[in-house]
Request: fold
Amino acid sequence: MLSVEGVDLHYGAAIALRGVSISATAGAVTCLLGRNGVGKTSLLRAIVGAHPITRGAIRWDGADISRLPPYERARRGIAWVPQGRDIFPLLTVRENLETGFAVLPRRARRVPDEIYELFPVLKTMLRRRGGDLSGGQQQQLAIARALVTKPRLLVLDEPTEGIQPSIIKDIGRVIALLRRRGDMAILLVEQYYDFARELAQTIAVMDRGDIVLSGAPGELDEQDVRRRLSV
Amino acid sequence: MRALLLVVALLGLLVGPHGPASAEGGVAPALAALSSRHYDDIANGVAALAVSGDPRAAAILGALQGGRLYARADHALFIRGPDGTYVDAATGAPAADPGTLREVRVNNAVRRALDAGLGALRLFAPDAAVRATAADTLFAQPDPAAIPALDRAIASEPDAGVKTRMEQARAAAILQKPDASEADRLAAVATLRARGGLEARGLLEGLSGQPPAVAHAAAAAVSALDFDLRLWNYAQSAWYGLSLGSVLLLAATGLAITFGVMGVINMAHGEMVMLGAYATYVVQVLFRAYVPPGLYGLSIPVAIPVAFVVAGIVGIAIERLMIRFLYGRPLETLLATFGLSLILQQAVRTIFGPTNRDVDTPAWMSGATQIGGLQITFNRLYIILFAVGVLFALMAVLRRTPLGLQMRAVTQNRRMAAAMGIRTPWVDALTFGLGSGVAGMAGVALSQIDNVSPNLGQGYIIDSFMVVVFGGVGNLWGTAVGAVVLGVINKFLEPVAGAVLGKIVVLVLLILFIQRRPRGMFPLKGRAAEA
Amino acid sequence: MSPAPRALAVPLAVPVIVTGTAVLVAALALGGVAPAYIVSLYGKYLCYGILALAVDLVWGFGGILSLGHAAFFALGGYAMGMYLMRQIGPRGVYGDPLLPDFMVFLNWHALPWYWHGFSHFPFALVMVMLVPGLLALVFGYLAFRSRVSGVYLSIITQALTYALLLAFFRNDMGFGGNNGLTDFKDILGFNIESGRTRAALLVATGVVLSLQYVLARAVTRSRFGKVLIAVRDAESRTRFLGYRPESYKLVIWVLSAVMAGIGGALYVPQIGIINPGEFAPTNSIEAVIWVAVGGRGTLAGPILGAVLVNFAKTLLTGTLPEAWLYALGFLFVFVTLVMPKGLMGLVRMRRRDDVPGAAAAASAAKEATG
Amino acid sequence: MSAEPEGAIGAVADTLLYLDGVSVSFDGFRALNSLSLVLAPGEMRAVIGPNGAGKTTMMDVITGKTRPDTGRVVFRADTDLTKLDEPAIAQLGIGRKFQKPTVFEPHTVWDNLLLALAGDRRPGFTLRARETAEERARIESILRTIRLSDHRARRGGDLSHGQKQWLEIGMLLAQEPELLLVDEPVAGMTDAETEQTAELLREINRTRSVVVVEHDMAFVRALGVKVTVLHEGSVLSEGTIDHVSEDPRVIEVYLGR
Amino acid sequence: PSARAADDGPIKVGILHSLSGTMAISETTLKDVMLMLIDEQNKKGGVLGRKLEPVVVDPASNWPLFAEKARELISVDHVSAVFGCWTSVSRKSVLPVFKELDNILFYPVQYEGEESERNVFYTGAAPNQQAIPAVDYLMSEEHVKRWVLAGTDYVYPRTTNKILEAYLKSKGVKDEDIMINYTPFGQSDWQSIVSQIKRFGSAGKKTAVVSTINGDANVPFYKELGNQGIKATDIPVIAFSVGEEELAGIDTKPLVGHLAAWNYFMSVDTPENKAFIERWRAWTKNPKRVSNDPMEAHYIGFNMWVKAVEKAGTTDPDKVIAAMIGVSVPNLSGGYAAMMPNHHITKPVLIGEIEDNGQFNIVSQTPGLIVAQEWSPYLPGSRDLIADWRPPMSCGNYNVKIGKCLGAGSLTAGK
Ligand SMILES: Nc1ncnc2c1ncn2[C@@H]1O[C@H](COP(=O)(O)OP(=O)(O)OP(=O)(O)O)[C@@H](O)[C@H]1O
Ligand SMILES: Nc1ncnc2c1ncn2[C@@H]1O[C@H](COP(=O)(O)OP(=O)(O)OP(=O)(O)O)[C@@H](O)[C@H]1O
Ligand SMILES: [Mg+2]
Ligand SMILES: [Mg+2]
Reply:
């Protein structure tokens, strides 16, 4: 159970998040929507520890993790698929996946087959350098790499960006599957509203560093949401 | 005048045939000469004593060579035993209280005479190795006076190898003998030619006053040997290149990690090497103080891990206190590590003083062996092996261990690596520590061939950077190949262009090479590399 | 887009300070108020300031970390040194009217061809700029054309200066080997040791540095400068916009080399000797250090850095001869850790913070109300 | 693999861009497999295809970033682009937006656009260049188009992902190229923005030719232009969006069921 | 020109030796020995009833810094004399400063000659006080016929080798029996050069190496000699810049018998030397500390200066310079060193063989003292020059052929 409570985040003097609160529970997908530059990525960075927050708290399993370094958070089961993929360019695809082993006990260090089933292209490219992959392939690798860590909170920043339609569908199925398994909380940033609506239990819409709307997809007024997403 | 008389007396001795001139009066002038203060006299005395056949000759000459021969004002000679007691040199009788004595000193001329003289005497030693060395010494210092002794030795020599060497020594001496027959001389030339090598060439080339046929044969032999030598020369240059390459490699591997893998422009790298060399020095000092002398040979193997740990710990400290604040600002690491290198240099100067420290080479590492015309010095051989070992160990760590994977991941994208759960501070510190530790190990090797002084590191830093860049940053193989290639080019150029010009040419070649391959010999290819 | 008065004030501040202090020091020394020796000392600092400015142009703005810039400085210095040598005329120890002393005692019989012409000041002046400029042109053309960049470039610049070091060490090169060129008598007919000549040289250095600063500022503020910064941070991207990074780099590189050469030319008469030691890689590294201390990518910073670091060196080598390396080393470490943007960073940071910070605050306020 | 002269010239005559049997391989992997493609002047073309089909590589080849192993890329009937380097190609009038947005991070949004503005690119010019009123007006109008007017003074590096995308589109506009290569312009944009982008591209297409790569089928549909489907480095299918989206092979490898 | 400190204050003495950088290795000791000498002199009551005060600066092996520091010593600290420099280039760098500000430099290291300046006193050896006797020794005692002149590529080795080459040829040595080899500073890989030497020495004639290899490069050179098994009995090496201090950093066992030529060895068996070493060790609190030739040079130079100051009754450099000539003080090898009109001193030449304890076994000593030939008769350019700083000549480079003081010498001499 993740709960973000009144978080502020600054880039230098510029503020990107103001008092944002949001939560995510196991077995559910929380989807974050918003126009460009409203602070979605910033919120995810705050959660995974990639950028320090200036106010508020981030609780995971009841403990405040907002002062923990990112690797400690990862060790508590938080995995991140960043926007822009952040593949290790000079590591091979296999090695990129193996970086996920750091949080696993020695016995559990293997790449589950279902990952290759989901992203068959990776299996054929295990020895290629991550940086050489095409954009969409890198995106797939980034998701796969996050899954290797067997996370309990999966934080996805626009995971469908640059991915071909058939695989987007697959990813949707996987997210649904993971959700159904019930042991993983999923926080998803998405621009692709239809995709979000299908998957999410909760939808939160951000604007100018704050959450301005949230609720179950059924409860929200679609027109209102769409308006908030346009200029 | 006195010297002249002495010489006359000695000449008398020399012309006296090889039969044992055991009469006491016979060796007296020789012994008197040994007690002279003039090195010429001593040398003559040594020569005379050596051929005198006197049973005490070997003991006296041995004592002289070992610095244990003493003279009294009245020209009486005494040998000091290992226990500090003296015996009369001429008689071997113990001398309870010899009075004020003065050590009989030797210079190069005397040393040569001793070598020759003792050589002849030791031809009959019970130990085959001693006999072989004796034959070699006689070969190097050919002396017709030794021919009879050689003849006798050859006749009684059981060991075939030693026998050949004695025959070679005899051949060398024959060529110096004024009244040798032409046939003997020709045979001698053939023997020398068959032996080959620089020394034989030297002997043949230096002949004078030979009958025409012999001179002709000698000249032919010299040119034949020259041909061989030239071929061997190439091999030798390649070997030198390899060994220079291994030194460069050792110096550069640490940098290949701190700079190549981590991207820190580590100006203090040289100082890590220096720390390793000083660690070796300290280990040797401690060995001398606390470890039985018999184990001294272990000082270097012990120094290797010590240097690794010392430099590694210093490296970790540097990373924690300094470098870690500078990730993402690679160029500023240059400034900070430059400051650090000043501090470390001065610290070593304060602690150990500005002058060189004496790190010596244990017996098992010194000397050389000959493979055909190729001379291989042991310390270089070990350094090559060591460099290869370090290289492979490091590759294994980087390629095969989880730590290696994490190191590479962290240096490629620190933020993402942390998000993957990798303890980046820990990995950073270990990586820098590893690079520094490896540099420290290089210091152990360098202490064997270079100064151990506060400036040691400075001499290698430029070369190290060049090697890393030449090979291609981030590629350990590249570093290895780069080091060897630079070494070999350097060593082939050096004899042709001279050391200075050779070095300049290497630098210019490097500059031109980088124009052809802007990312080194083994560049990282593909999209990943083009940032 | 800063307001006009400030834009005017800033470019004048540095030239005024530099020239002003130079004139002041010269006047004080001539008037006997200050010790004469600070004249050439300050002159030396300012020459280093020129070198630092040159390094900053290529490093701070072009992203080319040159670890061999002292080579251009030294070449300019040698060109000037050759002029000064020729001015000695028959006053050398051997009284040879043509050959410098070191040639006489190494048995040279004729002046090597490359020494001709240096007896004329204008020729020497041209060479001061031409030699470093040409070398930079050839080297830069080759390197930038084949897209050598980053550390590869840094290391080959180092190789370049190292090769020159070795070459100039060689007595056979005809530049006096390790001892270099020294024992100068006069420059343009003025006794090089007289206080007035010294003062004039100092003022000249101040003026040249000021001019170079103004030039550098104009260049970096121009659209050229913006392209250059773009090249520094995203070279390949500029190509897709149709820019040729190599020509931009080449222009700034050659300009910087010429500037450094002029610095070297001013340095030699004030120091009294030029020798291959000036090519030593550490000299180039030190120049980079001055830039870093002062603040890379600012123009005043490097000058400040060069003066201050060298002042510290003068001070410490005199007062703490046994421990000054600790002091200097700690200074460098301290500056990097505490002042990430160098000395100028302190000034800049405050300015930068209030500008975008204020803007952000304003927009935040607008958003809150809107 | 030389093209048949006659056919080639025929194809070349009324085309703006002609890719002729282009192959590229990396360490033995064929990213483009004798790909041929013809673009008429004033045409807009959508290129779709699975991840790794070679779309970006194709753009790399056109813009000179990657040299093909075989084949030609003919621009305006007479210029073989494979003989030219990136700046030369850019100066010919081929502009590009990258898949991963790349802007000049230390420069302000304004300066990013200024540097992209069409004009002389030589140092001799830029050393003397002053910002003209005309240029300022142009930048203002682009800023409005990409809705970054409020962000003009911010550093490019401080923008969010989507803002960078927009800035890059703006830079492309500023360049005023004859041919625009746009790699995934709407990735990370909201649906509304996607529509606007489609509108913008159609607008541009009135005067210029465009090649656009995108995975967003709604967007592609909105463009309403001929679609080329790449697969494993060569053309799998070509035609209207309806035509290709019914092609079973396209469904199989790309759209999915 | 500069104002002098008040007459009753301490007399300041400048010490200008590198304490950091590449030369620190050699020069630091000289700073120490100067401090000791000054300290001892103060215990004896100083000079002219005034205490001496050392002023130490660090020119950091950086030649321009040498000039700067010299200027600082003279015009800020107002020193009365400076003891310093090691390399020729550092001397050349400070020379204009000493001339301009009219002060005194004592230069303690053997050098290439070809210089005689009014403001400098050269207490190290000129080539004829070291190199030529060394070659003589090898010719007569080791019967050397073939010569390798190996040096670092800079002015001192170049000049010395020029002189030696001319000298050897004048003794009938043929061109093909001379091999000249130069290496860069800090050369550390000697493998091929040593093997080249070995090959050169295998021509059947007795071969020797005359080494002007500088500083740090010696250690790897000797290590390589040892490794390749070149023994002194085969190819002896005679060096001009390897002294006790350098040997302290090498394992000397493989080097026994190789030679060095100096004007002083620590092993010189005289009471003065014994006393000096004892004081030195006590002062440095290091019972193993060695002494060497440049130290002796400073010892002589300092004592000469003290004597000259006392003779002149003032520390005024002009007067002291005038008083220096003819001053004679005991050296450490049992004789006297006298300051000659050419500002060089008389010296004995000693040849020593390296012993396994890092000391030298003195195998030859010139019977008398040798006067320096600052202008070598073996170089065509300087053949006709002499130096005599006594009035009326007062010239460092007087051409006896044309009877004129050359160049600037005549200009500055009057000052
Ligand atoms: N590294 C940074 N430095 C300064 N400002 C930044 C930085 N990253 C983002 N910002 C600013 O913070 C605000 C929020 O950015 P963020 O990346 O969180 O937006 P986003 O909602 O993820 O947008 P997008 O949909 O475009 O990815 C934006 O105004 C952006 O310009
Ligand atoms: N330098 C390289 N080395 C190895 N393989 C490469 C390299 N560059 C591209 N590839 C491979 O070439 C193929 C084509 O890549 P490209 O980027 O053109 O695909 P794309 O069609 O743009 O895909 P996406 O839709 O995912 O962006 C991919 O499989 C990629 O892995
Ligand atoms: Mg985002
Ligand atoms: Mg792509």
Q: What stands out?
A: The mean pLDDT of chain A is 90. Strands of chain A lie at 2-11, 14-24, 29-34, 55-60, 63-64, 78-81, 153-157, 185-189, 202-207, 210-215. The first strand of chain A starts at residue 2 and ends at 11. The pocket of magnesium ion (ligand 4) is lined by residues A 134-135; D 55-56, 99, 183 (CB under 6 Å).
